[in-house]
Amino acid sequence: MEIRREVLLIIFLLLIIAVLVKLVEFFQVGVFESDASKFVREDLRSKYPTADIDIMTMTPMESGKYLEVKAKVTLGADTPCPERTHIFYNYPAQNFVPQTPEVITSNCVVCVVGLCTIAFPEEAIIASHTLPGTGDISNYILSNTNAMPTVKEKSDSWEVSWDSQTATYSYVVDIHRNGTILDVTPISK
């Protein structure tokens, strides 16, 4: 009887230890992700002080030994030609070899070669005044240098509104995700 009690007590203690270990791991992951987020944001702020920065994903790698962090950096977000780049980090650093950034928009160009997919707001802004059928928008931007875009994501399209404080009208451009201009609508103020 005594041996059976001792065995049950040992099993009970082992279960408590296992639960405590899992609790510690659970809280460490939260702290680990928080540290990674803070590190990435600080690094990007120092490299791109005027950019819009956002962390897109944090993916645990090699059973949680490190995180792959994907961040977005947009320069000139409120301009006709925003530049968006995705930057990848491994936290903590793995092999000290940075991954090559993924350039999403550059030089005010989208949908030049191959299939066109408008996947991000920055692409929609550029498409709204550079794709065929958007000449009125291009002229509006040229004659209203303070024109600013506002982007709204819809289920299968993007709506880009162009407005200038000095103009008597604004424009709304509806762009399908495949790069087709669906509608260009002038709106009186």
- The amount of beta strand, in percent, is 25-35%
Q: Which structural category do the helix and sheet elements fall into?
A: alpha+beta
Spatial gap, N to C terminus = 89 Å
Q: Count of helices?
A: 3
* Helix and strand element order: HEEEEHHEEEE
- Mean pLDDT score, rounded? 86
CATH topology of the largest domain, by name, is: Nuclear Transport Factor 2, Chain: A
Shape: elongated
Biggest sheet architecture: 4 strands, antiparallel
Helix content: 25-40%
| Oligomeric state as shown | single chain
User: How many domain modules?
Assistant: 2
CATH architecture of the largest domain: Roll
Regions with little confidence, pLDDT below 50 for 5+ residues:
27-31
Using DSSP, what is the number of strands?
A: 8
Radius of gyration: 25 Å
**Within the largest sheet, what's the order of strands?**
1-2-3-4
Summarize the structure.
The protein is an alpha+beta fold. The chain is built from 3 helices and 8 strands; from the N terminus they run H-E-E-E-E-H-H-E-E-E-E.
Structural topology:
Elements: H1 2-47, E1 52-61, E2 66-75, E3 83-91, E4 102-103, H2 121-130, H3 135-143, E5 148-153, E6 157-163, E7 169-176, E8 181-188
Antiparallel strand pairs: 1-2, 2-3, 3-4, 5-6, 6-7, 7-8
Provide a descriptive summary of the structure in words.
The protein has 189 residues and is an alpha+beta fold. The chain folds into two domains: 33-105, Nuclear Transport Factor 2, Chain: A, CATH 3.10.450; 121-188. It contains three helices and eight strands. The protein has a four-stranded antiparallel sheet, with helices on one face. The chain has a four-stranded antiparallel sheet with strand order 5-6-7-8, with helices on one face. Strand 2 and strand 3 form a beta hairpin. The longest helix has 46 residues, at 2-47. The radius of gyration is 25 Å and the shape is elongated. The relative contact order is 0.09. The model is unreliable at 27-31 (pLDDT under 50).
